Amino acid sequence: MGLLHLTTFVWNHPLNTGGRLKALGRVVRWQLASRVMVGPIALPFADETSLFATHGMTGATGNWYCGLHEVRDMAFVLHLLRPEDHFLDVGANVGSYTVLAGGAVGARVTAVEPIPETYAHLERNIALNGISGRVRACQVGLSDAPGTLRFTKDLDTVNHILTLGEDHPAIEVPVQTLDKLVSQDVPVLIKIDVEGHERSVLLGASSTLDDPRLLAVVMETNGSGTRYGIEDSELVSLMLDHGFSAYGYDPFHRQLVDTSLTDGNTVFVRDPAVVAARVRASKRYRLVNGTI
Fold first, then answer.
1. Cβ–Cβ < 8 Å for 177, 169
2. For residues 266 and 136, what is the distance between their CA atoms, to the nearest angstrom?
């Protein structure tokens, strides 16, 4: 992310509306500190949690700049979950959502991250927040069948399964199905961010998706699947077949909203009345730039 793009993103982020200059100050402080200090730096996150970050970690540093980098989806996770609920984080990366769920909320988490180097960062953030007892970290990929797949390994938050003919440093990773991974421990909420491989993950999750204990799925729907010939409409159709409806989320009014208001992800909900009651009743969480 170039400096102009970064400052525009931070300036316009909805959580920074009342403190834009302070947000830009956090950008300057990080840009300087990350170039001077050796090793990862622990940055404040939600409530008493923190995230380790190093230069170039766009997701982790975005939380420092903006409170919640992906405010709608991250706030939905905070507002829907309760302590001891089970949350499945598919494509956990360095652990932003895992730390929100396991650290800020106190939920149980299964965190799935296939890339070894990224998985090491995930484990470090789990240890930093003292939530190892609540988090099951799995270095594996998810797909529609067990086997192995080739992943890019050095693209930070956008590592993905290689397409035919794509020339990029890669690593072979074992994969299994979501149904096999969770077995009978069905989560209340699933987050899926697998850079276009979502349809295959869903095809391996039929039993879990049909279980009424699963209330919602937050899934990336930003066109990434086109690299594999998959349209977002196919993901929506699959979720509708399993009894879910598509929404966005307004974290400031705690309301499910029309999907036209989303920014790259969709919230799929089984029972809107149950979900609406949960998010309304949630506590508020403290961030670096306010509360949510």
1. no
2. 25
Give the Cα separation of 172 and 235 in Å (integer). 26
Architecture of the CATH domain 70-287: 3-Layer(aba) Sandwich (3.40)
What residues does each domain of the chain span?
Answer: 1-68, 70-287
256 near 228, Cβ under 8 Å?
A: no
Q: Is the pTM of this model over 0.70?
A: yes
Other residues' Cβ atoms within 10 Å of the Cβ of residue 50: 17
Strand 189-192 relative to strand 147-152, pairing = unpaired
Q: Which one, of 248, 291, 287, lies nearest residue 267 by Cα? A: 248
Q: What is the pLDDT of residues 25-50, one digit of tens each?
A: 999 999 999 888 888 999 999 999 99
Give the residues of the chain that fall short of pLDDT 50: none
Q: Which pLDDT score is estimated for 94?
A: 95
